[in-house]
Amino acid sequence: MQNNEEVLLKVDHLCQYFKMGASELKAVDDVSFDIKKGEVFGLVGESGCGKTTTGRSIIKIYDITSGDIFFKGVRIGAGKRSYINKIKSAREEYGKKIAEEKDPSKKKQLAEELKGIISEQRNNIKAAKFDQKNCDKEYSAKLVEEIKAKYLSQIEKAEGEEKQKLLKEYKNELRKAKNTKLVTQIQMIFQDPIASLDPRMTVREIISEGLIIQGERDKAVIDEKVYEMLELVGLVREHASRYPHEFSGGQRQRIGVARSIIMKPELIIADEPVSALDVSIQAQVINLLNDLREKFGLTILFIAHDLSVVKYFSDRIGVMYFGKMVELASSDELFKNPLHPYTKSLLSAIPLPDPEYEKQRKRIVYNPLESHDYSTFKPEMHEVAPGHFVYCSEPELEKYRLEIK
Ligand SMILES: Nc1ncnc2c1ncn2[C@@H]1O[C@H](COP(=O)(O)OP(=O)(O)OP(=O)(O)O)[C@@H](O)[C@H]1O
Ligand SMILES: [Mg+2]
């Protein structure tokens, strides 16, 4: 369970839109959540609701459209759209005001105010661009300084062979520090264990790729690490020289896990790591992730499309629907007091090994048009009970508050 309250990852108003001809597809639309150190956060929702896009935005595969992503307090992702929109709306609002204003001195004052807003937002855009691009460089610069501080004085004091040895170590460490990116502390395990492993690479090459990119050149060190990882995930060192097609689905996913943990990540994004596997193998892979979590104090963002998989594994769960987060609560709370009709429909889809229950179980179908009337009151995220958030309008909030009592 949760170790402490330290926030490892903070996703703040994340939007990721894709261009679709003249319009845009809002794959992720204003999603916020945070993950505390040591926690497993489950992200659930039907196919196409934006789960993978959320994960890929976090590991910086995209320049996100809008919002911020913080990892260990450092802004690693920053979108510009919200600032651009603020400039647009300020121009419209002030344009009108200025046109209506008769008093020339007040007119001038309004124009000054508008100028101030625009320049502030432009600075925000600049800072967002900078962070999106440079957060890794700054992190690596910090590591380089740490390596220098550790070695330089030692090297100065040392002599002869000792000095040569330290120098060699120093150079090796320095090269690695220069190549290290902050985002490598976030590793993703992919949905499809077949497509995500290059068929032309041996298991050794697949698992060690990250280390080599980081600058590790010592073959003995690389081999030793690969063997260690293979054994950790329940494979054997003889597997290192084989190719992905020689393995079963469950074994391939273990290779995927080994590839991600060799980088000693703090956060793992496991994107439906078991949905392509047989039920009996699913449990094995989940148990493996659970073991690793305890061993390394890993924090995990676990993506799944059905609630039954994440139920026992997650501390908290976020439910997504069509790019929006619609409900967020602790696992227990979500199963005890589901409020959003979409969450209820997901829960109604879980079969239980209880014949009586199964006889009565009715699939609830979620139809947003029938379930909500957002013509007057617009929906937003509301905290219905401590730590339990629902995307709803004010009248719905009242209803949910009564329901939870
Ligand atoms: N690179 C892209 N370009 C354009 N559209 C994309 C891109 N990636 C995803 N999409 C679209 O964004 C939406 C969300 O996709 P995403 O893969 O995040 O869903 P998902 O929740 O992971 O679904 P699944 O459970 O099927 O994996 C979908 O409509 C998808 O078609
Ligand atoms: Mg997906």
Protein model, in words:
With 405 residues, the chain is of the alpha/beta class. The chain has a domain of 172 residues: P-loop containing nucleotide triphosphate hydrolases (Rossmann fold, 3-Layer(aba) Sandwich). An 8-stranded mixed beta sheet has the order 6-7-8-3-9-10-12-11, sandwiched between helices. Strands 2-1-4-5 form a 4-stranded antiparallel beta sheet. Helix 2 runs antiparallel to helix 3 and helix 5 packs parallel to helix 7. The longest helix has 54 residues. The radius of gyration is 25 Å and the shape is flat. It starts with 6 loop residues before the first strand and ends with a helix. The mean pLDDT is 93. The structure holds adenosine-5'-triphosphate and magnesium ion. The site of magnesium ion has 4 residues, from helix 1.
Provide the spatial order of strands within the biggest beta sheet. Answer: 6-7-8-3-9-10-12-11
Strand content: 15-25%
Assign the CATH architecture of the domain at 1-72 and 266-365.
3-Layer(aba) Sandwich
Write down the CATH class of the domain at 1-72 and 266-365: Alpha Beta
User: Number of DSSP helices?
Assistant: 14
Mean pLDDT: 93
The largest sheet is: 8 strands, mixed
Shape: flat
Order of helices and strands: EEEHEEHHHEHHHEHEHEEHHHHEEH
What is the straight-line distance between the termini? 27 Å
- CATH homology-level superfamily of the domain at 1-72 and 266-365: P-loop containing nucleotide triphosphate hydrolases
* Hetero compounds: adenosine-5'-triphosphate, magnesium ion
Low-confidence stretches: none
State the CATH topology of the domain at 1-72 and 266-365: Rossmann fold
- Which structural class matches the secondary elements? alpha/beta
What is the number of strand segments?
12
**Fraction of residues in helix:** 40-55%
